[in-house]
Write a structure and sequence with these properties.
Blueprint lengths: L1 E5 L15 H9 L3 E5 L4 H17 L6 H43 L9 E3 L7 E3 L2 H16 L5 H4 L18 H8 L7 H22 L12 H13 L12 H10 L14
Antiparallel strand pairs: 1-2, 3-4
Length: about 270
Amino acid sequence: MFTTTLLPNFRKLSDYFVDLTEAQITTVESDGGVVVNLEYLDNTGFERLQLHLASILERYGLKDHYKELLYLILRKNEEIGEKHTMFWHQYNEEKKLKEVATFLLGLKNLKQHETVQLAIKPSLSPTHTINNNEIAEWMIQSIVDNLEKQEFPLSLFGSQIYKLFNGFEDDQHISLDKLTAASKLKLQNPKFKLRPLYVELCLYLQGYLVNQTHLTLPTNAKLSDKQANFFFDILQMLDYISNDDFDSEPKDYIYALFQNNKQVSVYQGNKTD
């Protein structure tokens, strides 16, 4: 964990910290700021982000809002980082479950007298195969037996593996129905779960832009071109997106991102250009 101290103007951030009193703000100022613990940025990453953000804000005429926007971005980035880790962990666990289930289901569906081979394919090497059917069956069955008896390293297989079992009281612990269900799992790449979070970050910052800066919204608009370009630069700064993700103008990418994630509440500004 990387720790730093920041001193944003919390009076500008009153919409975000409604319970923060004037006395508390004064105390923070006298203490030289608030301690910020960062799980998803190290010292090098933090310094890079500071320089990049300062450059972006200079370009948009927002340099007077550096401390406040840095603080908001870091807070939201930590939330997204936590969910990012959770989504990928869940995806990898379900992927392992599906692979094991598909393998075991294939074994259980073998017809009598069908030939079994056991093969490995080392990187940059020829495939090594055990062609002797009886030896291959014995080696595979040894693996299956350990799984049936639930004698496996949980740290390796993960707790999802228990979704394949009926219970300890049965002679046959692994359920054919559960194997079938797990083998048909539809895996969704976590990047599709992360995109709504990127919109959340944009909307989180949009409130500050509308109420504290010149990057406001036209009447009845949900997003402006200037804001869209700004959000694109912030998402790229955080390595959430790259030039490989799109083939259109930056602002058009953000408009499409908003359009495709309508389930995220859109901030409605009260100020106009």
